[in-house]
Amino acid sequence: MYHKINFFKFKKLIPVALIFLVAHQADAKGFTSNYPVFSQVNETISGNVTDQNGSAIEGAKVTVVETGDTVSTDSSGNFSISANIGQTLSISYDGYGEQMVKISSTSVSVKLESKKSSTSIEEVTLVGYGSQKKSDLTGAVSQLKAENFKEGMNISVDNLMQGKIAGVRIVQSSGEPGAGVNVSIRGIGSIRSGSTPLFVVDGIPLNNDPVSAQSPNVGLGNTTAKNPLNFLNTSDIESITVLKDASAAAIYGARGSNGVVLVTTKRGKKGEPMFTYDTYLGFSSVIKKLDLMTADEYRSAGIDKSYDHGGNTDWQDEIYRNAVSSNHSVSFSKATETGNYFASLSHMDQDGIVLNSSFKRTTARLNAEESFFDNKRLKVKLNLTASDIRETGIPNGGNAGSDGQLIIHALMANPTRSVYDQNGNYTNFNMNAHYNPLYLLSVYEDKTNTFRVLGNTEATLRILPGLNYKFNLGVDRSLSERNTTMFPNITDRSPKGIYSQANLDSYNILLEHYLTYDLSLNKHNFSILGGFSYQKFKATATYLGVRNFVNQGAGISPEINPGYSGDVFIPQPGTSQENELQSYFGRVNYNFDKKYFLTASLRADGSTRFGDNNKYGYFPSVAAGWTISKENFLKDVSFINELKLRGSWGETGNQEVINKITKASYLLSQSAGYYLYDNLNLINGVQVVRTPNPNLKWEVVAQTNIGLDFSLFRNKLYGSLEYYNKTTKNPILFIPSTPLSPTDFVWLNADGKIVNKGFEFSFGSEIIKNENFTWNFDINGATVNNVVKDLPVSGINSGEVSGPGLSGVTANIYKNGYEAGSFYMYNYLGIDANGKYIYEDLNGDGKIDPNDRKIFEGAIPNFTFGINSYMKYKKFDFAFSFIGQTGGNLVNNTALDLNINNLASDRNVLKKYYDSGASFANQPQLSSLYLEKSDFIRLSNVRLGYTFDMNQLKFLKSINLYVSAQNLFTITSYSGYDPLVDTNKQVQGNQSLGIDYTTYPSAKTFILGATIKF
């Protein structure tokens, strides 16, 4: 049973509201001593503030000159303030000229004129439970807007961040359409609790657990988990904000240790209603081919003559294809005086570059906001998206070993074999654990259908000017069914056929109440937040299986009618998981004269995942900022427009652990049995399989951050510099227990640490801007230095290697003094005169055994970077993006399976191993021979477009036609398909790092697209 947290009662907010009300009255009295007293205020003045282009300005300061009362505009540029007809309003916003308006009615409309070019430092940026101008920020926060997203086939939101934000690394677990993506912010901070940030979509924190059903192993391994973020239509996204340091992320407490990504979808904007149609057609091919031996090279290599089968086949060409993809998206947006609306419908159809793989997604979205009552006192927002995803997969399980992988079968296949025999049937290789890859594809089916709905309603009530109560109710519901079939076949993988149906029903319910209060006293400005959050997660998985059914094509497929033939069985037990999170949070932002800034926050999280003695964790943060450019000694320095120094410290948590691990677990077993009766029948006894630990608590990450924001030379050069030091403490580990414990291993918070520290930079420049030509250019980069400290064990192994004779061999080690996930293997020295591999004898005992293994660092690149450029000349636009990394390594497990010994066993090999002169008798051995640099630089995206203005047609505003290419070229010494890859090869839950095992390759893609606005 999980521990039930008492539900929050709304009445607890009443004392908080009373405190704010009293404070408001007290502050109001303070104004009368500094301003003339007018007659009693009896009017509520409402208005709207926009820029010269009609776009709403959020955060503009509106002050009644005669009384000093001040409010700020909301995200729609609206405000409401108490004043008399005849009084004067002062409206100001950084970067715009101050405007004075005489009040002549209860409705005011103000348009501010820019006094200088807008820069990134003046943008309004989302933060947890609110927004701030970037010039007011004290934490490390980066934001991308829709215009920063690269055009292309970006299935999920994480792809949009690739190379755009310093310190954010995006690595594919697989190039398969819809497959998972690994996102890490500022290094790797956990051994077994994951490094994925918290994603918050329109105010709903998502669960990082899979939302699509995962099939049991039908003999070919478990295929890669699907991406839980692939349900969003990327065309619907307005902005992505990354909270990197603890000051910014601590407001999310127990889930903020890996950073937080805030995703905001589009809304209607002021102006004429807009109807938009986006479409593209894409053509994809494998990013590169591995350099294997051709049929002629194979024959002349001195192989056993029986291995020459008379054919000539490039097996990579047989399984890879030129894939065609398409996308259609229509959207409608509109804003009125009281609200705004956005609706969209889209359909994506993407074929994978490997035969039989595909991804199809249909999404619908509705975002609406409306105001009610006097002067928009109540605002109600609705965000709703629904997606239907249909995927087909291939047999490429990451844990299947060398005999359950489609791609490894194709790479190992003898090039002198033919696809078909003389009868037109698939050639039977007649080999154990090695099959014709095309035949394997023909007898395997894997189909996943996932329907997901994400929606929330947010209501904001203005209690008093500056004081708002917000209510947020959200639901995330997913239903998924996966049907996996291995039809009767001639292999030794389930030869009589096996079918598995997996069903997953998961939901996430969110309830939040919070108050915000904005107050200005002369040059003192306060923004106060206090609230409560309750979130419940539940997931139920069930399984059904059939074995020994009729041949493919004979009768009804078990997917359609599982009871038609065969033996019904349960592939694995069903599961039901439920947990809850109850939180209280608060934050105070203060600034004096927009020059000195202070932010403090605290979140208390209570989770059912943790022990009875540690149900609640407390996560504080504090940050300060100083706008140096506003000091008198810099006011006359003409080349400095903005200069701001920031510093922060805070703690966040990581609660990504298995449910119920704090509780004891038992089973009945013969090994613990006893003879109770004289008949000598053994009675099963009770065995403890998990030792309880009521003291288990969160992993805690403490982070210090120092940053500098700048804008120079009339805003021609702008950016930021950051230094961070991020330390994970109290890691949750499953390690050997102390003597007298009822189990050999126990879950506990160890004394170890993982330290990540480094520098980040981002520079941007509006190099040219005139009537005909605009050129923006930016570059970002980040370093990371990672080290493990104070672990109570000699080492923790992970990264299971696959291959013949390599069962139980691991590549990763977590060890004190070394980088997380360093590599542990033999040191390859070369080849002797007989072609035999030479390994370093570390202990000098004259033999090579596991005691001679050496630690190599490391999987984590020391430096990552991105380069982005956008140019517009008249109606042409041109953009490109580069990404890259240095200082990391990869274990090329694919190459290990293509070792020289394959030539002695009727299999193919990488050409470089044959050319090295190595003997065919060398047995596969994990060594530094297969450890390669993962350094690369890649032209990840390039785009050329032309916009046709359609002024002559009243119903058509513009047409933008473009051509685009993704992954056009990569410069790297890595011999595998892609150096930006990380196959999940974890051991006992300890995450693996830097292993490439027959991963579904990335694609090179060319796109023709159009955006039409009506």
What is the secondary structure topology, with strand pairs?
Layout: H1 13-31, E1 43-50, E2 61-64, E3 70-72, E4 78-83, E5 88-92, E6 99-102, E7 107-111, E8 124-127, E9 130-133, E10 141-145, H2 157-160, E11 168-172, E12 181-185, E13 198-201, E14 204-205, E15 237-243, H3 246-249, E16 260-265, E17 274-286, H4 295-299, H5 315-319, E18 323-335, E19 339-351, E20 358-372, E21 378-392, H6 406-412, H7 437-442, E22 444-464, E23 467-486, E24 498-521, E25 524-547, E26 567-569, E27 575-592, E28 596-607, E29 616-627, H8 632-635, E30 640-654, E31 665-675, E32 682-690, E33 699-712, E34 717-729, E35 732-736, E36 745-749, E37 753-769, E38 773-783, E39 785-789, E40 796-800, E41 810-814, E42 822-825, E43 828-831, E44 837-839, E45 854-856, E46 863-873, E47 876-886, E48 889-892, H9 893-897, H10 911-915, E49 931-933, E50 936-949, E51 958-972, E52 995-996, E53 1003-1013
Parallel strand pairs: 1-7, 13-16, 48-52
Antiparallel strand pairs: 1-4, 2-3, 2-5, 5-6, 8-9, 10-15, 11-12, 13-14, 15-16, 17-18, 17-53, 18-19, 19-20, 20-21, 21-22, 22-23, 23-24, 24-25, 25-26, 25-27, 27-28, 28-29, 29-30, 30-33, 31-32, 33-34, 34-37, 35-36, 37-38, 37-39, 38-46, 40-41, 41-42, 42-45, 43-44, 46-47, 47-50, 48-49, 50-51, 51-53
